[in-house]
């Protein structure tokens, strides 16, 4: 399981770092000079291998899993990242979403952790989806009701609206089946049955479930690129990541396809990269990219500590 945890953490961070230099660039701009390798500088003028808030907050979550599950502790790690540069790649925070920033402010003031996240329909950026993957190693053997409960709690630290929670739940259900070694297309088809059935059993608002139609009722991999959006909206990021995963055959192709969609490149790269890391393993992530990663040894150590706590 140690190698699998490493693959997830590095999968997120490498995909994230691929996108950091071109974040906010349009698809049309990037098409003039597509990203084909790990590059640096660009948007934030930072060296190659620099991950963003996506990975930092995923690592904060993973750090929380090295202890007994404690939502307040995970929330404090988020505060520590923003206020004191904990788990930053190069000693400073250079990117944060508005909803996440507001939620961290509430956490720092002592608001109950699962009430800190935005509950408004406008609070459906991808800020919880981008960091949720490490949770799978804690919940993977739980019944589906428990998996949902913990997913909702951890999403709600920053994003508490049902839409963000459903996106995180779907993503982790996909990850869970990847951990079982299932084929990605078989997983996609299976989730089209199991996810709506579970959400309906929870009496989820049908209008919210309907928004996920392209994933739950269509073959999203068959859509043309111009039908795939890559903004910071949680549903766009989830759709883009599943599209990239299903329409490519290896980690490199999947993450580069994600980044070259433009706009929220680091998060689309991170979310795609997390699942691709689980699917293709550490050996699937280009070694040259791994070697350039900021805090590589620290990430290795984090994976080791998570594994020690959960599987020791």
Please indicate the percent range of residues in DSSP E strands (runs of 2 or more). Answer: under 5%
SSE series: HHHHHHHHHHHHHHHH
In whole angstroms, the N-to-C terminal distance is 10 Å
Structural class comes to: mainly alpha
Number of discrete domains: 1
What key phrases describe this protein's structure?
single chain; 312 residues; 16 helices; mainly alpha; 58% helix
Q: How would you describe this protein?
A:
The chain is mostly helical and 312 residues long. The protein has 16 helices and no strands. It has one domain (2-311): Orthogonal Bundle (ADP-ribosylglycohydrolase fold), CATH 1.10.4080.10. The chain has helices spanning 2-19, 27-32, 53-64, 71-84, 98-108, 136-139, 144-155, 162-179, 184-201, 206-210, 213-216, 234-246, 251-259, 265-280, 287-291, 296-311. The longest helix has 18 residues, at 2-19. The protein starts with a helix and ends with a helix.
